[in-house]
Amino acid sequence: MSTTQNLLIKKMTYDPIVQPRDADPERVKEFILSMKHDEHIPPIKVGIRNNRYVVIDGTHRLEAAKKMGLDSIRADIINEREEVWPALAVFYNDKASKPLTPEQRKRKIIVCWDRGLSTDDIAKYVGRKKTYIYEVLRPAMEQKRKEREERDMRILELYEQGLTQQKIAEKVGVSRERVTQITNNVNVSANGKTNKICKMKERNEKILDIMAVLRK
User: ParB-like N-terminal domain spans which residues (predicted)?
Assistant: First the structure.
C-alpha cells in the first residue's frame, strides 16, 4: 500500500479537500522538540500528483520540519487512487494524538461521497462501519435526492414548453443524455400535450440502500 522514502520538502503541497486543517502552533512546537532530540517520528503520508507530494497525513510534522530548515522528511507514499485520499486522511487523523472532531470527520466523509467515492469504499478507507457512514450521509443524500427531483421536474416543465433537449440541458445545467432519459419517461397524449411523469425509472439507489440498512 505504501513505500517509505526521504522526500524533498520543497515538493510537498497541500490540498484542502484532502487535508483541510491548519497547523496548531503548539503542536508544531512539540514536534520540533521531539525532532531536536532525535525521537522517533512516524513518517508522514503523501500521494503523488503532477510530480508533487500531496500531504494526506502529517501537517504538523511537515510544518515542524520546515521551521527547522530541513530539506527532506520521511514519508510513506500511498499507492491509492486520489478519490480515496480524503478518506485515508480521516483514518490516519483518527489515530493521531489530536484526532479530528466528530464534525470534522463528518464533513470529510461527505466530501468523499460528493467526490464519487462509494459508501463501501468510504467505510473501508475511513475504517468505520457501513451503518455509521450511512447515518452520517443520510441528510446529504436526502438533500441531493430532493435537488435531483426538483431539477427533473424543471426539465419536464421546459419540455412541455417546447424547448429542445439541447436548450433544456443548457438551462438546467445537465447533460443532454440526462434530459433524454427524463423526457423518455413522459407519456404524450393525443393532442400532443404531456401528461404527468409516468414514473421515473431511476430512484436514488443510495437512499434505498440506507432505508434497507436502517430497517435491519
Answer: 5-94
Give CA–CA dist 5/141, Å, rounded: 40
Percent of the chain with pLDDT over 70: 82
d(CA 66, CA 110): 31
* Residue at 156 is within a domain: yes
Burial class (CB in 10 A: 0-12, 13-18, 19+), 198: exposed
- Its domain, for residue 149, covers 131-215
Which residue pairs, CB below 8 angstroms and at least 24 apart, start in 142-147? 142/207, 144/204, 145/204, 145/207
Q: Is the Cα dihedral 30, 31, 34, 37 positive or negative?
A: negative
CATH of the domain at 59: 3.90.1530.10
**CA dist., res. 130 & res. 91, Å (int):** 14
Cα→Cα distances 110→141, 157, 186, Å = 9, 31, 33
DSSP letter (8 states) at residue 96: S
Neighbouring residues of 187: CB distance < 8 A, sequence distance ≥ 6: 194, 195, 198
Q: Are residues 8 and 78 in the same domain?
A: yes
Which run of H or of E encompasses 210?
helix 205-215
Question: In the chain, how many domains are there?
Answer: 2
Note the pLDDT tens digit of each residue in 92-104: 888 776 777 788 8
The pLDDT tens digits of the residues spanning 174-198 come to 888 888 888 887 644 334 444 444 4
CA distance 96 to 53: 21
